[in-house]
Protein backbone atom coordinates (compact mmCIF):
# COMPACT_ATOMS: atom_id res chain seq x y z
CA UNK A 1 0.00 0.00 0.00
CA UNK A 2 1.14 3.48 -0.73
CA UNK A 3 0.10 6.67 1.01
CA UNK A 4 -1.41 8.33 -2.01
CA UNK A 5 -3.10 11.60 -1.19
CA UNK A 6 -6.90 11.32 -1.15
CA UNK A 7 -7.01 8.61 -3.82
CA UNK A 8 -10.33 6.77 -3.57
CA UNK A 9 -9.06 3.75 -5.52
CA UNK A 10 -5.99 3.01 -3.40
CA UNK A 11 -5.69 0.80 -0.30
CA UNK A 12 -5.07 3.87 1.86
CA UNK A 13 -6.84 7.24 1.96
CA UNK A 14 -4.40 9.79 3.38
CA UNK A 15 -5.67 13.04 4.84
CA UNK A 16 -3.51 15.89 6.13
CA UNK A 17 -5.36 17.45 9.08
CA UNK A 18 -4.21 20.85 10.25
CA UNK A 19 -7.18 21.55 12.55
CA UNK A 20 -7.20 18.62 15.01
CA UNK A 21 -4.72 20.34 17.33
CA UNK A 22 -6.98 23.42 17.55
CA UNK A 23 -10.42 21.79 17.56
CA UNK A 24 -9.68 18.43 19.17
CA UNK A 25 -11.74 16.71 16.45
CA UNK A 26 -11.07 14.43 13.53
CA UNK A 27 -13.13 15.72 10.61
CA UNK A 28 -14.49 13.00 8.31
CA UNK A 29 -15.79 14.47 5.03
CA UNK A 30 -18.87 12.78 3.59
CA UNK A 31 -20.23 15.36 1.13
CA UNK A 32 -18.81 18.02 -1.18
CA UNK A 33 -20.82 20.47 -3.27
CA UNK A 34 -24.00 18.45 -2.66
CA UNK A 35 -22.52 15.11 -3.75
CA UNK A 36 -21.23 12.14 -1.71
CA UNK A 37 -17.45 12.28 -1.15
CA UNK A 38 -14.76 11.21 1.28
CA UNK A 39 -15.95 8.44 3.60
CA UNK A 40 -19.16 8.01 1.58
CA UNK A 41 -17.33 7.13 -1.64
CA UNK A 42 -13.91 5.79 -0.66
CA UNK A 43 -12.86 2.27 -1.60
CA UNK A 44 -9.73 2.47 0.56
CA UNK A 45 -9.19 -0.20 3.19
CA UNK A 46 -7.62 2.24 5.68
CA UNK A 47 -7.81 5.97 6.42
CA UNK A 48 -4.63 7.69 7.53
CA UNK A 49 -4.78 11.02 9.34
CA UNK A 50 -1.49 12.91 9.37
CA UNK A 51 -1.88 15.59 12.05
CA UNK A 52 -0.04 18.76 11.14
CA UNK A 53 0.42 22.28 12.59
CA UNK A 54 0.79 21.75 16.33
CA UNK A 55 1.58 18.05 15.77
CA UNK A 56 4.19 18.88 13.08
CA UNK A 57 3.21 15.79 11.01
CA UNK A 58 4.62 13.59 13.79
CA UNK A 59 1.30 12.07 14.86
CA UNK A 60 -0.34 9.65 12.44
CA UNK A 61 -3.60 7.80 13.08
CA UNK A 62 -4.53 4.78 10.95
CA UNK A 63 -8.10 3.44 11.10
CA UNK A 64 -9.74 0.66 9.11
CA UNK A 65 -12.31 2.33 6.85
CA UNK A 66 -15.22 0.09 7.86
CA UNK A 67 -14.56 0.79 11.55
CA UNK A 68 -14.31 4.53 10.85
CA UNK A 69 -17.62 4.40 8.98
CA UNK A 70 -19.29 2.67 11.96
CA UNK A 71 -18.05 5.28 14.43
CA UNK A 72 -18.67 8.23 12.08
CA UNK A 73 -22.25 7.05 11.54
CA UNK A 74 -22.91 7.27 15.29
CA UNK A 75 -21.66 10.85 15.43
CA UNK A 76 -23.58 11.74 12.25
CA UNK A 77 -26.81 10.38 13.77
CA UNK A 78 -26.19 12.58 16.84
CA UNK A 79 -25.82 15.70 14.68
CA UNK A 80 -22.05 16.07 15.13
CA UNK A 81 -21.57 17.59 11.66
CA UNK A 82 -20.06 20.79 10.34
CA UNK A 83 -19.83 22.71 7.08
CA UNK A 84 -16.22 23.19 6.07
CA UNK A 85 -13.81 23.49 3.16
CA UNK A 86 -13.83 26.01 0.35
CA UNK A 87 -16.73 28.40 0.98
CA UNK A 88 -18.25 25.84 3.39
CA UNK A 89 -19.26 23.61 0.46
CA UNK A 90 -18.32 20.35 2.21
CA UNK A 91 -19.90 18.51 5.12
CA UNK A 92 -17.97 16.51 7.71
CA UNK A 93 -18.68 14.41 10.77
CA UNK A 94 -16.67 15.52 13.80
CA UNK A 95 -15.24 12.85 16.08
CA UNK A 96 -13.50 14.15 19.22
CA UNK A 97 -9.95 12.81 19.35
CA UNK A 98 -10.33 12.17 23.10
CA UNK A 99 -13.12 9.72 22.28
CA UNK A 100 -10.83 7.48 20.23
CA UNK A 101 -11.91 4.68 22.60
CA UNK A 102 -15.13 4.55 20.56
CA UNK A 103 -13.07 2.73 17.95
CA UNK A 104 -12.70 -0.32 20.23
CA UNK A 105 -14.31 -3.38 18.69
CA UNK A 106 -16.77 -5.07 21.03
CA UNK A 107 -17.39 -8.53 19.63
Structure description:
The chain has 107 residues and is α+β, with helices and mostly antiparallel strands. 16% of the residues lie in helices and 36% in strands. The protein has two helices and seven strands; from the N terminus they run βαββββαββ. It has helices spanning 20-23, 65-77, and strands at 12-17, 25-32, 35-36, 46-51, 59-64, 81-84, 90-96. The strands form two sheets. Strands 3-2-7-6 form a four-stranded antiparallel beta sheet. A three-stranded mixed beta sheet has the order 1-4-5. Strand 6 and strand 7 form a beta hairpin. The termini are far apart. The model has no long low-confidence stretch (mean pLDDT 85).
Quote the distance from N terminus to C terminus. 28 Å
Q: Provide the helix percentage.
A: 10-25%
What coarse outline follows from CA principal-axis ratios?
globular
- Helix count from the secondary structure assignment: 2
* Strand arrangement, major sheet: 3-2-7-6
Low-confidence stretches: none
Mean pLDDT: 85
The Cα radius of gyration reads 13 Å
Largest sheet: number of strands, sense, barrel closure: 4 strands, antiparallel
Proportion of residues in extended strands: 35-45%
User: What's the number of extended β-strand segments?
Assistant: 7
What is the SS-derived class? alpha+beta
The ordered H/E elements are EHEEEEHEE
Brief characterization of the structure:
The chain contains two helices and seven strands, in the order βαββββαββ. The protein is of the alpha+beta class. The relative contact order is 0.21.
